[in-house]
Specification:
It comes from Streptomyces sp. NBC_00119. It holds the Pfam family TGS. Pathway: Purine metabolism. The chain is of the alpha+beta class. The chain has 5 domains: 216 residues, Hypothetical protein af1432 (Orthogonal Bundle); 125 residues, Beta Polymerase, domain 2 (2-Layer Sandwich), CATH 3.30.460; 88 residues, Roll (Ubiquitin-like (UB roll)); 64 residues, no CATH class; 75 residues, Alpha-Beta Plaits, CATH 3.30.70. The protein is 40% helix and 16% strand. The chain is built from 24 helices and 21 strands. The strands form 6 sheets. Strands 1, 2, 3, 4, 5 and 6 form a 6-stranded mixed β-sheet that branches. Strands 13-15-14-16 form a 4-stranded mixed β-sheet, covered by helices on one side. Strands 19-20-18-21 form a 4-stranded antiparallel β-sheet, with helices on one face. The longest helix has 21 residues.
Length: 711
């Protein structure tokens, strides 16, 4: 708590976040500052100035070594001696306050040591090599990471590169961001000494980037207080109204939330469940949001009940008892224990009402879950403590067990961002997503996506740039378009084609919400500009529109998918689009204008027409084959999910769907026509068998398109 904050237990104005911290001892940083001016203690005795840090640290880590903290404080105090903050306090009070914040959250000794030293390399004559020599590589790495973030101004022109560096530093060691967040919190607490315009600029950056990062790292204790401090600066009128609303509620003689809490204690005691029932006041921004959502607030709306138990199973026992003895509000129930949030958060959420209409929101969690809910990654201790079975990744780098999935995704796309401005705008868009959903994959895995994400986003989250080949999806067992917006808990099966020339549609950008998807699609579109349509061939030489297209680099007129060897040297060969022959079909060929030879299946309807016009047949045989295209017709009885089942069967045979049409059902029957790209012609019989095995399908045959007379 800052020196400027008023003790909430005494009369006076309520400061942001103060009512949430009710009951916590007030720490006088001015007294700490004067203790710091007296210099370090003699010998190896711990200086009085770090007494509060040591006390908070030992509460979480009783056996933690204190000597590194003593030596770090001695170096920091001596190097910052004579420096003053704009508030008039000795500068050493800042690293002390930052370290105290982290100690109260449960940070381990290495983080606290680096926190005490985090400004020494930047603002004093202490060098990074000196820190490395005296405190080791890990402390030096953290100090260097925070220093790099401090070196870049927060002006608008510098913001993109600043936060790109911040993201990279965070990805390499999340403790860097923990120190940065605590540093920003203390600076925000003492921001009143700065000009209003500078306060507003710093508050906006805090709101747009640092608060969302704190949310994603799960450090709720820092996030909520930062929200209140930003709220007070950027929205002073609403803040004042909210403060008066809270003060008026505190002045009421009765507290319905306290009454419900006592009733809950009795219920759980009678049920034999050892539980601690606490009242958790809402912070300012939470009260403001609740008021906007509900209008008039009742007494129980100013806080929540927090029930802490020992084991996971007890959480569900508490839930059952509360739902039995109170009236549950079913729509408010959420299970974040079975499916934790992307930021490590776990709890059961519910709400119960009593006869007079008061509704109390209830959070149920274990003590360990509560520790992680408050401190996030900070509560996980040293992620690099070398256990007996220490593992490293394939590059030999130390693996970070605290890196959340969202952070890995951000690191991936920040490398792919073409420039800093794109990175910055995309980062802000991504961090603005205040809610994330979890969708399930058929293999049991999960994907974390922002609310409003579509199947396009799921495809790129799962497959990266290979998602260019996605041809469809099934959501909860039903065929869905790639534009389908996903909901929390959906099961998504992505249907992938095998065509190496697959390309994303420009329309996908309209449905992509995640940076990974948008950047990948834009990059492909940028590197593959639309090819101008060729001039139309003279009448009589135009190939049927369904004829295969030659890939880039293939000689003009050559078939796109297979080698046809004809007895006419120098002729260009084209597979007829009317029958799409593939090996080992019996084929025949006819010479047409322009030195082109068209190849037909022997039973093609167009063969008789070509012969009737006097076309001479050309000898032809199959050469070495690679990929080939074929058109198949599936005749079936109409039933739900038939298209999805057929598409899935095709995908399982490693066959790409080039196009598909479904005719309207007639007398309970339906016809599907697919143009498919086969990896090898030998797969065709197996593919047709797989399609015939789909329930309701009674025939699969090769397509015969109406023949076109070719001059």
């Amino acid at each position: 708590m800052s020196a400027e904050a008023t003790n909430p237990a005494t009369p006076g104005p309520i400061t942001p976040g103060a009512h949430r911290r009710r009951g916590r001892p007030r720490i006088d940083l001015r007294r700490i500052g004067w203790a710091a001016l007296l210099g370090p203690a003699a010998g190896n005795r711990l200086p009085d100035a770090i007494g509060h840090v040591v006390e908070a640290h030992r509460a979480h880590h009783p056996e933690a070594p204190l000597e590194p903290l003593r030596r770090a404080y001695v170096l920091a105090e001596s190097s910052h001696r004579g420096q003053m903050r704009k508030s008039g306090e000795p500068y050493i009070t800042h690293p002390l306050a930052v370290t105290l914040i982290l100690a109260e959250l449960g940070a381990e000794t290495t983080t606290l040591t680096a926190s005490l030293l985090h400004d020494t390399v930047e603002d004093t004559e202490v060098t990074l090599d000196q820190v490395r020599t005296e405190f080791g590589e890990e402390v030096a790495y953290l100090v260097d990471g925070v220093t790099k973030l401090e070196k870049v101004d927060y002006g608008a022109a510098a913001e993109p590169e600043t936060f790109r560096k911040m993201l990279v530093a965070t990805g390499n060691d999340v403790r860097v961001m923990s120190i940065k967040l605590a540093d920003r919190l203390h600076n925000m607490r003492t921001l009143g000494v700065m000009r209003p315009e500078k306060q507003a600029r710093i508050a906006k950056v805090t709101r747009d980037v640092l608060i969302p990062l704190a949310e994603r790292l799960g450090v709720q204790a820092l996030k909520t207080e930062l929200e209140d401090l930003v709220f007070a600066i950027l929205h002073p009128d609403e803040y004042t109204e909210t403060r008066e609303l809270i003060a008026a509620n505190d002045a009421r003689g009765t507290d319905p939330l306290a009454e419900i809490a006592e009733d809950a204690r009795v219920v759980l005691k009678d049920a034999g469940i050892a539980a601690e029932v606490l009242i958790r006041p809402r912070h300012f921004v939470s009260v403001h949001r609740a008021r906007r959502k509900r209008g008039t607030l009742r007494g129980a709306d100013f806080g929540r009940l927090l029930v802490l138990v020992g084991e996971d199973a007890d959480c569900y026992g508490v839930l059952g008892e509360l739902h039995t003895c109170f009236t549950p509000v079913v729509s408010e129930f959420k299970d974040f224990i079975a499916v934790p949030k992307f930021n490590l958060y776990q709890s059961l959420h519910t709400a119960v009402s009593r006869g007079d209409g008061e509704v109390a929101e209830v959070l149920i969690r274990t003590h360990q879950m509560h520790k992680v809910a408050e401190a996030g990654v900070v509560a996980l201790g040293n992620p690099y403590a070398p256990p007996a079975d220490e593992q490293t990744d394939s590059t030999g780098e130390r693996a970070d067990p605290t890196r959340p999935g969202w952070l890995s995704r951000l690191l991936d796309w920040q490398e792919a961002a073409p420039d800093a401005d794109t990175f910055w705008s995309t980062l802000r868009e991504d961090l603005a997503q205040d809610r994330e959903i979890t969708v399930f994959r058929p293999d049991g895995g999960t994907l974390g996506l922002p609310a409003g994400a579509s199947c396009v986003d799921a495809a790129y989250a799962q497959y990266g740039e290979d998602a260019h080949a996605c041809i469809g999806a099934r959501v909860n067992g039903r065929l869905a378009t790639l534009s389908t917006v996903l909901s929390d808990g959906d099961t998504v099966q992505l249907l992938m084609g095998q065509d190496p020339a697959s390309e994303p549609s420009r329309d996908w950008l309209d449905h992509a919400r995640t940076p990974a998807a948008r950047i990948a699609i834009r990059r492909w579109l940028t590197t593959h500009p639309a090819t101008p349509q060729p001039e139309p061939e003279p009448e009589g030489r135009r190939a049927p529109e369904s004829a295969p297209r030659a890939p880039q680099g293939a000689p003009a007129g050559r078939p796109a998918e297979a080698n046809a060897v004809v007895d006419q040297p120098g002729a260009s060969v084209r597979l007829a689009g009317c029958c799409t022959p593939v090996p080992p079909d019996a084929v025949t060929a006819f010479a047409v204008r322009g030195g082109v030879v068209t190849v037909h299946r022997a039973e093609c309807h167009g063969v008789a027409r070509m012969k009737s016009t006097g076309r001479a047949e050309v000898g032809v045989r199959w050469g070495d084959t690679t990929q080939c295209r074929v058109s198949l017709i599936a005749e079936s009885f109409s039933r739900p999910h038939l298209l999805a089942d057929l598409t899935e069967a095709i995908a399982l045979e490693s066959v790409a769907v080039i196009s598909a049409t479904v005719e309207p059902p007639t007398q309970g029957r339906v016809r599907h026509t697919y143009t498919l790209q086969l990896p090898d012609a030998t797969t065709l019989p197996g593919l047709m068998r797989a399609m015939r095995n789909i329930a309701g399908v009674y025939d699969v045959s090769r397509a015969q398109h109406p023949a076109q007379t070719t001059s």
